Amino acid sequence: LMRYLTIALLLCGLLIGPASAQEKSPKKAFFLSLLVPGLGELYSGAKWRAAGFMASEALTWLAYVSWRSKGNDLKADFRTFADQHWRETTYHAWQAYNQSQPESQQYYETEHLPTKAEDTQQYYELIGKYAQFIYGWDDVTSSFTTTNMDIQSTLQHDYETQRNESNKYLKRASRIAGLTVLNRIVSAIHASAYVRTQQSSSNASVWLDLSPIDWRGRSTIELKKSF
Question: Within 13 Å, how many C-alpha atoms sit on residue 4's CB side?
């Protein structure tokens, strides 16, 4: 990550040359910080603020990579767990039993289970989330039923715990990605505003006007300030 950031700084450094406050462009500062947070501040001369925005960018991306990697590792683990302990053939056997019952005694199947090839994410979510899929778990050994689906499975509970843990880290990564966008927007607005402030400050000037004699014949020294 730091290597890519360094490359981006070197490439964009060509756009940042020595210039007075009047020559610097608020628009340029804005887009530089949109590209790399802090780059617009560096261009405008606010070096400490530039370091702050760049550090925030680096930290948020490091957190994103760490949490996403952790979430994906846990995802691989809970899917392996499901492949070992949930039997699609047993579930389909229960489905056949359910459909063979009188219509008044059939369990209403609210969910359709896709194949792994059709929708992998949905497949692994459904088997742990709904009672409809309880008979696929290895520790459910009772005879098929359609009227009482409140059967408990320790394996299903453990599976859902693992899946929720994975989702927790993936959601954190998703939220931190949003913070990187916010950091860019705040940096861009700040850099543009900072250039405008610098330009306003540089427009003010103070000088001494020494006139040997005024219209009344008196010697004068005037202190003048313009904005």
Answer: 7
